[in-house]
Every structure is written in C-alpha cells, then in structure tokens.
Design a protein that fits this description.
The structure holds two protein chains of two kinds. Chain A has six helices and ten strands. Chain A is of the alpha/beta class. Chain B is built from one helix and two strands. The chains are: A alpha/beta, B alpha+beta. Chains A and B meet through strand 7, strand 8 and helix 6 of A and helix 1 and strand 2 of B.
Chain lengths: ~270, ~30
C-alpha cells in the first residue's frame, strides 16, 4: 500500500500542515492563539509540549508549525474555515470569528498514524484538562489502513464532545472517485459517532469527478472544486489560490460546525 | 446536536442521491 498511501497523504494532508500565521494575522486576522500565554520555554500547562501557543508540529516535534510555502495545503484549508470576512480583503471563511489550533503531523514526506493519534489526543486533552471550547477537528487528509489506535483516539475526542470531520478522499491512481462503502478510506471511513465524512461538489452542484462517495459511509457534500482560499505569503503580498479536492470540501463543514456552535452556544456536538 | 443540525440541514441534490447518507449538500443558511 506504500505508494498509494504516500500519494494520498500528499494530496490530502490536512489540518495538519497548517500554516502561515503571518498571513492569518495580517490579511485575515484569524486569531490563532489558544490562550494569552507567551513563549517562555516552560511547559506551563504540563501537557508535554513546550510553548505550544499556536498548537504543535507533531511531525517535527516543535512549536514552529509554519515551516514555509510547502504548508500551502493547511493554509488553504484554514482560510476556508476562518478567513475574516467583511474586510475587503481576499476571501471570507465559513466562520469569521474563530480560534484555530494547528495540529500538524504531516510534512513534505507524509507522516505517521502514531502522530495522527497524538494530534487528536492533543485537542482532546486541551478540552478535558483546560476546558478549551473545541468544537471540531478538520481532517483534510487520508491514507493508511484501519488503525485501532486512531479509532480509539477519535472515540476519546467523542467523549469530550469534539467532532471529527474528515475528507471522503479523491479516488485512487485514476483520480476518479471511489465508493467508500466497498473501498474504505481512512480516517473518513471510521464509524465513530462524532465523525462526519465529506464529499466534494462543484459550483453547479454536481459531484466532483474526483470525489469519493458512499451511501452508508459518506455523510454530506460541500464545495470542493476550484475553491479560492488563502495560501502562504509570496513575498510581501497576501496570496490566494484555487485548489480542488475533498480536502477543500471538508473545511466548509468544519467551519459550518463552528458557526453553529457560535450561534447556538452550549449545544452538544451530536 | 451540531452533527445532526448539519446533516438535517442538507439540501438533497440529484447528484448526491444514493451517494451519501444525506443525499445532499451542506446548507448553513439556517445556522
């Protein structure tokens, strides 16, 4: 499965390879801080991660989550969730006032499911121990087989009422969407009750040709073809680009979940 | 509650009929 897995991870990666804080702050004013803490070299909250004020890079095991222009995928996904609207700049995300916590576990060469588990548990722990109001994780990534460890981690997220919203996947080598009912694609195909699997549609409402689907295993469609969103700064100018994939459909749903949580405070996730 | 709101709010489309649980696309206009 190696090659297929690698390819899929590179194409989908996810919530994972988030990015460009500068872009976020200057052009879209996304508030990435999970708290008012400042870097001081001390693991103040004793969660095992020092100065994780924006989240954590589980791939490099450091707090510098944004590593350059190769982090375009995560930056694009983040913009669809939370780019500030009404400011006459670039794009507007689904939820204009939202805090994003970056949990990067994929690098240019992919990543490991062990680090995916750590990333999911990081958010679960943040909510369980510190009461951070985490609504959902966006998982615009895929690849690898069934992992009991990841299934269990998603269940731990469920126990803290955190949704796990996942991309249905972009087909196989032929780029034509597959039926996840007969060919499971993880993590979208896990059966956890807090999971929402997202297919992609075009601007005319058709299913995107690349989008996986599944009468039983995919939940809903959202726009994922030629989506304009934020990409890392190129020089001094904010940059935006059109990307396509179920990776782009998924953050529409995640941002929608954040929007619902904002307008219905106190409602449980499911 | 949030998951069910998202799924129940889906707008059915012919393109997604039989292709997913809701058979439709995301609609947050009621949010």
């Amino acid at each position: 499965m190696g090659q297929r897995q690698h390819r899929l991870e590179r194409r989908l990666c996810g919530s994972d390879r988030r990015g460009d804080h500068v872009h976020a702050r200057r052009s879209e004013r996304r508030d990435l801080e999970q708290s008012v803490r400042s870097p001081d070299g001390i693991d103040n909250d004793h969660n095992g991660y020092v100065d994780d004020i924006h989240g954590w890079d589980f791939n490099s095991n450091d707090n510098t989550i944004y590593d350059g222009t190769t982090d375009d995928h995560g930056t694009h996904v983040a913009g669809t969730i939370g780019a500030r609207g009404g400011n006459g700049m670039g794009v507007a995300g689904m939820c204009w006032n939202v805090t994003l916590i970056s949990c990067k576990f994929l690098g240019p060469s992919g990543g490991t499911l062990a680090n995916a588990v750590k990333a999911v548990d990081y958010l679960t722990n943040m909510k369980a121990r510190h009461g951070v109001n985490i609504v959902a994780s966006n998982n615009s990534w895929g690849g690898g087989g069934y992992s009991q460890a990841l299934f269990d981690a998603i269940n731990r997220a469920n126990s803290q009422n955190i949704l796990f919203i996942a991309a249905a996947g972009n087909g196989g080598f032929d780029g034509v969407g597959d039926n996840n009912d007969s060919l499971p694609f993880y993590p979208a195909s896990y059966t956890n009750p807090n999971l929402i699997a997202v297919a992609s549609i075009t601007s005319s409402g058709a299913k995107s040709s690349f989008s996986n689907y599944g009468f039983n295993s995919v939940d809903i469609g959202a726009p994922g073809s030629s989506i304009l969103s934020t990409v890392p700064y190129n020089g001094s100018n904010p940059s935006y680009a059109y990307y396509s994939g179920t990776s782009m459909a998924t953050p529409h749903v995640t941002g929608g979940a954040a929007l619902y949580a904002a307008t219905h405070p106190g409602r449980p996730p499911r | 509650m949030i998951k069910s709101a998202i799924l129940l709010g889906a707008v059915p489309t012919s393109s997604l009929s039989g292709k997913c649980v809701t058979g439709g696309r995301l609609n947050v206009s009621g949010f």
